[in-house]
Amino acid sequence: MNSIKRQKILLGTVLSGYVAIVAFLAAYEDSSYQKKLALEETTRQAAASSTIDLLSFAAEGADPGDPCPYVARQRLPDARKLANAAGRKVLSGAEFTNLIQSQKLAIKTLPNGIPKIFHQTWWARKVSEGKLRLSASWLRCMPDWIHVLWDDNEVRELFQTEFPEALPLFDGYPYPVQRSDIFRYLVLDVYGGLYADMDYECVRDISGFDGIGGNRTVYVSGAPNPAVDGFAQNTLMASTPNNPFWPHVMKTASQSCGRMWEPEPMTRILTLLGACSLAYRLRSFMGWTGISVLDTTGPKMVSDAIRTYPRSQDMIGILDTDVFNGQMDRGAKDRDEHAMDRDFPCASKAIHRNSAGWTTNSPFPYTGEHTIMGKRIPHRLIAIIILEVMALYIFLTYGFAWYNDKARIHREQKKK
């Protein structure tokens, strides 16, 4: 056996061993992830009927030690006035829809037609005290708004009832945050109202004419970091029900799978063919995450939808970032020469605390990763690319050999 052949065998053995180890670890991780999902479902069902009363959290007032002066200077609220407020007890999605269907819920509206319904979503009605305190800030600011918290099962039920044709796309999203993103557009389309992330804090009532009560029918928070998010952020939004902008957003989202940057050929082929659901699932299996969430369902997609909507200037208001967002990340670390990151989040009316929990809540854990040219490359992805290269090498090597043998036999037969 010559040295070149020995080297090929050695290289093939090392690469095959690496792939086998990664495959074993990946199978173990995926099994653990499925167990985690089953445990989450048990917890979600157990918490589905739990009562969430925000009065005690709201009565405590804002943190007087907060570095943001707008927060620290807030006065203690009158707990007696909040005791009978519409937003004191947080409805579940199921409770809310039942009350709507039975016409037992009196909903007030702003002059521009935006109903006083405040929507939030979380994986279950099991919510930490820290997030409940942030939710309670909206009770202090806007006590006459009906507060609804939708869990993951109720979110899917909303799609099944109101937009069943989009259910395959919804189920195809591998990341929980993608389903959360797409939910907020549908719930504002169906019911209207205000949506805010769970890490948003209200400082002062935002429903006035200088906020979401102006002469527009859709309001979206401006983005503090345009290099990452685009010019709009989907963390704080308000709308009238049945607004024609939201079907345009949903259509934009359904066509956005091709925006994913892919180093792996199979996923790139699937995105080019428009097979979004398969591309998402393959992508998540390889442990490849990051900017695609922003591009496919998140702020960048919303920014594109606003940019391409014909009536955006007349219908859509972009809320001032320094008043309605105040996020710390302004883009300096993204090499935006005009940006300067804050030392703490601060805004005069509403603050996005930006816990960014979605960035660590990926559909599969990782077997480790390398950083190559500034890109995070998981070992799963490296293993799959190795398999593809090996398969291509075997196909080309033995395919050409087979073709040459057939051609040689054919020539020999012709000579005879």
Structure description:
This protein is α/β, with parallel strands linked by helices and 416 residues long. The chain contains 18 helices and 12 strands. The strands form 3 sheets. An 8-stranded mixed β-sheet has the order 1-2-4-3-5-8-7-9. A two-stranded antiparallel sheet has the order 6-10. The chain has a two-stranded antiparallel sheet with strand order 11-12. Helix 6 links the parallel strand 3 and strand 4.
Q: Note the gap between the termini.
A: 35 Å
Numbering strands along the chain, what is their spatial order in the largest sheet? 1-2-4-3-5-8-7-9
- How much β-strand is present in the residues? 5-15%
The helical percent reads 40-55%
Mean pLDDT: 85
Order of helices and strands: HEHHHEHEHEHHHEEEHEHHHHHHEHEEEH
Morphology call: elongated
* Structural class based on helices, strands and sheet pairing: alpha/beta
Number of strands: 12
Main sheet overview = 8 strands, mixed
Cα-atom radius of gyration: 26 Å
Per DSSP, the total helix count is 18
Low-confidence stretches: 363-370
Provide the descriptors you would attach to this structure in a database record.
elongated; 416 residues; two-stranded antiparallel ribbon; 18 helices; eight-stranded mixed sheet
